Amino acid sequence: xxxxxxxxxxxxxxxxxxxxxxxxxxxxxxxxxxxxxxxxxxxxxxxxxxxxxxxxxxxxxxxxxxxxxxxxxxxxxxxxxxxxxxxxxxxxxxxxxxxxxxxxxxxxxxxxxxxxxxxxxxxxxxxxxxxxxxxxxxxxxxxxxxxxxxxxxxxxxxxxxxxxxxxxxxxxxxxxxxxxxxxxxxxxxxxxxxxxxxxxxxxxxxxxxxxxxxxxxxxxxxxxxxxxxxxxxxxxxxxxxxxxxxxxxxxxxxxxxxxxxxxxxxxxxxxxxxxxxxxxxxxxxxxxxxxxxxxxxxxxxxxxxxxxxxxxxxxxxxxxxxxxxxxxxxxxxxxxxxxxxxxxxxxxxxxxxxxxxxxxxxxxxxxxxxxxxxxxxxxxxxxxxxxxxxxxxxxxxxxxxxxxxxxxxxxxxxxxxxxxxxxxxxxxxxxxxxxxxxxx
Length: 440
Ligand SMILES: Nc1ncnc2c1ncn2[C@@H]1O[C@H](COP(=O)(O)OP(=O)(O)OP(=O)(O)O)[C@@H](O)[C@H]1O
Ligand SMILES: [Mg+2]
Known about the structure:
Number of domains: 3
Domain MIT: 3-82
Structural class: alpha/beta
Subcellular location: Late endosome membrane
Mean pLDDT: 81
CATH architecture of the largest domain: 3-Layer(aba) Sandwich
Shape: flat
Strand order of the largest sheet: 2-3-4-1-5-9
Strand content: 5-15%
Number of helices: 16
GO cellular component, one term: late endosome membrane
Largest sheet: 6 strands, parallel
Low-confidence stretches: 80-104
CATH topology of the largest domain: Rossmann fold
CATH superfamily of the largest domain: P-loop containing nucleotide triphosphate hydrolases
Helix content: 40-55%
Distance between the termini: 60 Å
EC number: 3.6.4.6
Protein name: vesicle-fusing ATPase
Number of strands: 9
Order of helices and strands: HHHHHHEHEHHEHEHEHHHEEEHHE
Bound molecules: adenosine-5'-triphosphate, magnesium ion
């Protein structure tokens, strides 16, 4: 399409959008606005126009996007009329957008909170408890801290207070972040605020600690909530003389917010993860009341992991094979195993790519697994009966029989993948566990 017509198309769309908007056909208007913006952006990118024209298109796009955003909000909530097109949102309207507790009189605070809201994981990651292999004690502790108090609030009154801070520590790649994702999925009644240290560190003097404060206020406003801080060590390492002033302040604010005078942390759980727990500040360490060691997976957990990572890809491994694989991966972390499996999963693909001969086999049709067809093609060696000389380019898309993953593939990947966790770190982690932690 020539660029001139693209621009024209965009203008047409936007005209229709404003018309629909005027006629209160918001759903269509939203679609048209979005569509139009796409075309405008396309026009900017490929058009030979001058910078000024581009700039004015960009400005317009911004307006349309703002309007689209408002319409989206309105359609989602199904309440209150959106403000008329073109006019600024009224004060009242803004309030209902921003939700719970924040006071609108402080634009700074609003800005910070909106920055934080951007950093929060809203979607459920969809990792279930059963997707995490082993780590039974850690799962129990997390259920105790997260699920039970929400399900049976009366059970946790009086002196029986749920845990307020849990630290997951262990070698890299053992599933700490993964477990936190499972918590987010399974605790679907509470808000899961996942922030990383980079969300909380600002280059402006004084803003970082405000961000920390706002994070906790946001959590309180939406309780029950879980604040998950991955790699806490980067925020809360022990106080030393040469650390920067702002790092010290972030830490102080953390200490106060997690357990300070006048801060009610009912219904808030702070979940932290780190692989170098010994650098944590002692006071921060104390605030993580439960410190759970997430060790390298044991043999049976490794077998489960091999199975989990294979998923429903076609393979012909049996229980014995899984046991053998588990037995020969002592010292491998969950992440290492996932890499072995991923590499093994790719090998049938390479087989198809490099094959010089194919033969006919019967099997479930790739289109519909319930139908068995007999004209599928699979790679074979040139000496096989029925071998035909051809390469994958000659095979039609729906005629390829997927070669299953075999034990040979697994062993080959295993022989090329080394464990990533070193002895030294394990000793340090063990020592930390002895001193401060508990088995997970
Ligand atoms: N127990 C487990 N069960 C299933 N999969 C696991 C397990 N442990 C690790 N994995 C796999 O390894 C990947 C990496 O794990 P994760 O990111 O949780 O590691 P981590 O402990 O947070 O490491 P780091 O300390 O380096 O951040 C996960 O995405 C998952 O696929
Ligand atoms: Mg992690």
